[in-house]
UniProtKB/TrEMBL annotation:
<keyword id="KW-0813">Transport</keyword>
<dbReference type="GO" id="GO:0050660">
    <property type="term" value="F:flavin adenine dinucleotide binding"/>
</dbReference>
<keyword id="KW-0249">Electron transport</keyword>
<dbReference type="InterPro" id="IPR029035">
    <property type="entry name" value="DHS-like_NAD/FAD-binding_dom"/>
</dbReference>
<feature type="domain" description="Electron transfer flavoprotein alpha/beta-subunit N-terminal">
    <location>
        <begin position="5"/>
        <end position="195"/>
    </location>
</feature>
<protein>
    <submittedName>
        <fullName>Electron transfer flavoprotein subunit alpha/FixB family protein</fullName>
    </submittedName>
</protein>
<dbReference type="GO" id="GO:0033539">
    <property type="term" value="P:fatty acid beta-oxidation using acyl-CoA dehydrogenase"/>
</dbReference>
<feature type="binding site">
    <location>
        <begin position="267"/>
        <end position="274"/>
    </location>
    <ligand>
        <name>FAD</name>
    </ligand>
</feature>
<feature type="binding site">
    <location>
        <position position="288"/>
    </location>
    <ligand>
        <name>FAD</name>
    </ligand>
</feature>
<dbReference type="InterPro" id="IPR018206">
    <property type="entry name" value="ETF_asu_C_CS"/>
</dbReference>
<feature type="binding site">
    <location>
        <begin position="236"/>
        <end position="237"/>
    </location>
    <ligand>
        <name>FAD</name>
    </ligand>
</feature>
<dbReference type="GO" id="GO:0009055">
    <property type="term" value="F:electron transfer activity"/>
</dbReference>
<dbReference type="Pfam" id="PF01012">
    <property type="entry name" value="ETF"/>
</dbReference>
<dbReference type="InterPro" id="IPR014731">
    <property type="entry name" value="ETF_asu_C"/>
</dbReference>
<dbReference type="InterPro" id="IPR014730">
    <property type="entry name" value="ETF_a/b_N"/>
</dbReference>
<feature type="binding site">
    <location>
        <begin position="250"/>
        <end position="254"/>
    </location>
    <ligand>
        <name>FAD</name>
    </ligand>
</feature>
<keyword id="KW-0285">Flavoprotein</keyword>
Length: 321
């Protein structure tokens, strides 16, 4: 069955987050010979669209409006609903990002559709689309089968590989005018917290620190290792609560959910609420001075030792690479 799949691109600082391309790849899996239409909402975004074709979009729709410059739930949902009404897609996908998590339920409510949230895999089998998603804080996975109605899903970053980049691909770009009115949320100022160069939720490598790092000063060493590896820095809530770092770095049940290729946990005990946010990392390396620490039960590689001795050795070794 051929389907038309609308994929919302996630724009940040004038470029697309990788999950935009991963969601296009997800769209391709269910389009089944139909088309994948990428939607870009924002202000001055029409110059960005070529990359969406490189990663597989068949068509692009841009919606430019000054009230779409920054994400607000009411402006974005009004704009996306109008694109959905104009295109009548069989499926709508977006990243399971801060934007996607907030926007998708609003779209589901307005369109009276279901919502598959946080999908990590999907396949189309005949009339059915089968999604896999984590449950019980990542301890188990469930399959959800969607057979009718508009399929709405958010796709977890770093799980579905994007298609190979092909710079010869191009396609039609259409600008759509939408009416955005009665806004209840107006952004007056955006204050960005700097959490280092690499975006935590999309990072391939994360160096993460816990209460064992002991101070803000200790976290500086983590940044040094992260710099050498091209990694992002993350943290447990223990470290955030102790004021060693900003809450923007928190990984876990009430923080960010990450799926990097490599997760290095330093001085983190492995509480269930932390593990909920990182257990699906492809390779977990734990450094902890307590051999009984529960982080070792999920680690692929464990180093029992003082992180302040291990960290300089790791930095030195990786610098040689
Ligand atoms: P600790 O548990 O204190 O562990 C510190 C570890 O460092 C110990 O294992 C110790 O052996 C080791 N260590 C100490 N010194 C050294 C050294 N020199 N070298 C090597 N190792 C050393 N937590 C999260 O992380 N994310 C969440 O999203 C989250 N959400 C929560 C939601 C709820 C509702 C609740 C109740 C809790 C939540 N928590 C969350 C908190 C969670 O339960 C833990 O308290 C927290 O994860 C502990 O952080 P930690 O591992 O850094 O600290």
């Amino acid at each position: 069955m051929a389907r038309k799949v609308l994929v919302l691109a996630d724009v940040r600082d004038n470029s697309f987050r990788n999950v935009s391309f991963e969601a296009i790849a997800a769209g391709k899996k269910v389009a089944n010979g139909g088309e994948v239409v990428s939607v870009v909402l924002g202000e001055n975004v029409s110059g960005l669209t070529s990359e969406l074709f490189y990663y597989g979009a068949d068509r692009v729709i841009t919606v430019e409006n000054s009230s779409l410059k920054e994400y607000t739930p009411d402006a974005y949902s009004q704009a996306l609903l109008q694109v959905i009404d104009a295109e009548t897609p069989d499926a709508v996908f977006m990243g399971h990002t801060a934007v996607g998590k907030d926007l998708a339920p609003r779209i589901a409510m307005k369109k009276q559709s279901g919502l598959i949230s946080d999908a990590i895999e999907l396949e189309a089998v005949g009339e059915e689309v089968i999604f896999t998603r984590p449950i019980y804080s990542g301890k188990a996975f469930e399959k959800k089968v969607v057979t009718d109605g508009m399929i709405l899903a958010t796709i977890r970053p770093n799980n579905i590989p994007p298609l190979d980049k092909d710079e010869s691909r191009t396609g039609e770009v259409k600008a759509l005018d939408v009416e955005i009115k009665d806004l209840r949320t107006i952004i007056k100022e955006v204050v960005r917290k700097s959490t280092g160069g690499v975006d935590l939720s999309e990072a391939k490598i994360i160096v993460s620190g816990g209460r064992g790092v002991k101070s803000e000063e200790g976290f500086k060493k983590l940044y040094e290792l992260a710099d050498v590896l091209g990694a992002a820095v993350g943290a447990s809530r223990g470290a955030c609560d102790a004021d060693y770092c900003d809450y923007a770095l928190q990984i876990g049940q009430t923080g960010k959910v990450v799926t990097p290729d490599l997760y290095i946990a330093l001085g983190i005990s492995g509480a269930i609420q932390h593990v909920a946010g990182m257990s699906n990392s492809k390779c977990i390396v734990a450094v902890n001075k307590d051999p009984e620490a529960s982080i070792f039960s999920i680690a692929d590689y464990g180093i029992v030792g003082d992180l302040f001795e291990v960290l300089p050795l790791l930095i030195e070794e990786f610098k040689k690479e």
